Amino acid sequence: MEHRIVGTVMPVLEVTLESGESVVAESGELSWMTSAIGLTTSTKTAGSKGLFGAVKRAVGGGSLFMTEYTAQGGSGLVAFATKVPGHIKPIEVGGGRDYFIHRGGYLCGTTGVELSIAFQQTFGAGLFGGAGFVLQKVTGSGSAWVELDGEIVEYELKGGEQLRVHPGHVGMLDSTVTFEITRLPGIKNIIFGADGLFLAALTGPGKVWLQTLPLPNLAHALTPYLPQASGDSDRGGGAAGLIGGLLRGDNS
């Protein structure tokens, strides 16, 4: 099996499989493949032994069904592209090296790699972390590829060293790094700040990969440029409505 990552801002992962070799990805990740690639979709892949395991994987941000791509009768190529600007990070799993990755960050992996939900160390992490801090756990043995959004910033935390991060910026971390949700200190910060109420506290030892473009931030930045529903009831009133009407060329 060979792979290469093509592109910069919107990269694509190309995996070349020899006859009989397979790679497993979440349903819907496929971009293109050659005719030698056959595919099988099932809940019983990526370490799942049945429906319950698939449900746990889905709770962690993965899909209920996984698709296994296998080269049949010769070598073949299968490709997976990123969904937003970012990077594809190859990782090796096994030998005591497991990972936690952000929700929806798993691109694909070999058949020995297992994907499940990462259980938070505290109840508060699951209760207040929101979708930005639901993590997937990558275990087993083999090669895997992770999609990280935006640029990647890496930190190597020593034992007991802590980094507090907005939950959406957590891209991937070693399983040796503990994580919990902490409240932003200071009543003024809570009332007047725009940084949210909670931060993810990551405590070493272990390596942390942060991503600079959380999807909620991207969606928020694009909202003012999205088309709005027509009709007077949707246009709002006051100065904002007047300015909007002038921009649209309303005569009324």
Would you count the extended β strands for me?
Answer: 19
User: Count of helices?
Assistant: 6
Query: β content, as a range?
Result: 35-45%
CATH superfamily: Mitochondrial biogenesis AIM24
**What best-fitting shape do the alpha-carbon axes yield?**
globular
The rounded Rg comes to: 21 Å
Q: Indicate how many domains the architecture comprises.
A: 1
Kindly provide the name of the CATH class: Alpha Beta
> Roughly what percent helix?
10-25%
* SSE pattern, N- to C-terminal: EEEEEHEEEEEEHEEEEEEHEEHHH
Biggest pleated sheet:
6 strands, antiparallel
Describe it for me?
- Helices cover 17% and strands 42% of the residues.
- The relative contact order is 0.15.
- It has helices spanning 51-59, 123-128, 187-192, 215-222, 232-235, 238-248, and strands at residues 2-6, 12-17, 22-26, 30-33, 37-42, 66-71, 76-81, 86-93, 99-102, 106-109, 113-117, 135-140, 142-149, 152-157, 162-165, 170-174, 178-183, 198-203, 206-211.
- The N and C termini lie far apart (66 Å).
- Strand 1 and strand 2 form a beta hairpin.
- With 252 residues, the protein is an alpha+beta fold.
- It has a single domain, classed as Mitochondrial biogenesis AIM24 (Double-stranded beta-helix, 4-Layer Sandwich), CATH 3.60.160.
- It has six helices and 19 strands.
- The strands form four sheets. It has a six-stranded antiparallel beta sheet with strand order 5-6-3-10-13-8, with no helix packed on it.
